[in-house]
Design a protein that fits this description.
This protein is α/β, with parallel strands linked by helices. Helices cover 37% and strands 12% of the residues. Helix 3 links the parallel strand 3 and strand 4.
């Protein structure tokens, strides 16, 4: 299996996911949401999203500008490429609360996503 691991490419946000996939014997290729929007997911078996929901929007923080979608055209292309990938038999896995919310944002589920709060 050849999964595409979509992340913000920030080490802390996906290092565990990448390590697990590699230890399970997967050949992991990291891609950003922008790369998914510009390219298809052709050649991959699984699309693993381990980023935050904010990357799948055009409302980006300064820290995420280089990784996230820049405009509505990219957002629509991202959605179209992921949907096409799934329609052609590809698999999708969301890792974490942010990725689960992103799954809803791109229209792959209508489930209610409940997340816990943080303690301060």
């Amino acid at each position: 299996m050849n999964p595409a691991l979509a992340t913000s490419t920030k080490q802390q946000s996906h290092a565990g996911t990448k390590l697990v996939l590699k230890r399970l014997g997967f050949d992991v290729t990291e891609v950003t949401p922008v790369e998914v929007a510009k390219n298809t997911l052709y050649g991959f078996d699984i699309f693993v999203y381990s980023g935050t929901e904010s990357l799948i929007s055009t409302n980006l923080s300064e820290a995420n500008k280089e990784f996230g979608l820049q405009n509505d055209g990219q957002l629509n292309a991202f959605k179209d490429n992921v949907t096409s990938f799934l329609n052609e038999g590809g698999k999708y896995i969301a890792v974490g609360a942010g990725a689960s919310r992103a799954t809803k944002t791109i229209g792959l589920t209508d489930d209610i996503i409940n997340v816990g709060g943080s303690k301060q």
